[in-house]
Amino acid sequence: RQIDFGPSGGYYGIYQQDLKWTTKIGDYSYILKPFDKVEQIEEKSSTSVLLGVWGFWSGEHTVMNYVGGKKCWDGPERSVRVETVCGLENSILDVQEPNKCEYLMKLETPGACSKEKLDQLNAFLNDL
After folding, report:
1. Residue 4: alpha-carbon gap to chain centroid
2. Which residues contact 19 (CB under 8 A, 6 or more apart)?
3. What pTM, to 2 d.p., does this model score?
4. What pLDDT was estimated at residue 126?
5. Of residues 19, 24, 66, the one with CA closest to residue 43
6. What is the pLDDT of residue 30?
């Protein structure tokens, strides 16, 4: 299948990476496999729940949508919106559940940076 890595293939750098984020109290971890799936892992039992599989882009390649996750008890199928923000590293900054079984993840990645912003970040690093 053909994968849309965004303008100029900018998001290719996160393809086939496993990015992990654990809640502050350590009950759950979230694993993002870009362009594949998102899972929630209950730390004590190591039980994994599928939150969604790669669906589509929205917001001019700024939001990754994962759909068709495991159905919630008395609720919808789980889904995840991954909002991408410009940054030097590929890392999950935060995960929330604003609505029942609808998750929101913030992902920092160079793939979300414009060429101008990347040039600024590189200049800043060179000045350190």
Report:
1. 15
2. 31, 32, 33, 34, 90, 91, 92, 107
3. 0.87
4. 80
5. 24
6. 95
What are phi and psi for residue 118, nearest 5 degrees?
A: -60, -40
Torsion-angle region of residue 101: left (phi > 0), alpha (psi -120 to 50) or beta? left
State the amino acid at position 72 in one-letter form: C
Concatenate the DSSP letters of all residues of 25-73 into one string: TSSEEEEEETTTEEEEEETTTTEEEEEEEEEEEETTTTEEEEEE-PBPT
Q: How far apart are CA 32 and CA 28, in angstroms?
A: 13
* Radius of gyration for the alpha carbons in the chain, expressed in angstroms and rounded: 16
Q: Which residues of 93-119 are buried (b: 16+ CB within 10 A; e: fewer)?
A: eebeeeeebbbbbbbbbbbbbeeeeee
Q: pLDDT tier at 2 (50, 70, 90 boundaries)?
A: confident
pLDDT in tens, 35-63: 999 999 998 888 999 999 999 999 889 99
Cβ of 13: how many Cβ atoms within 10 Å?
Answer: 13
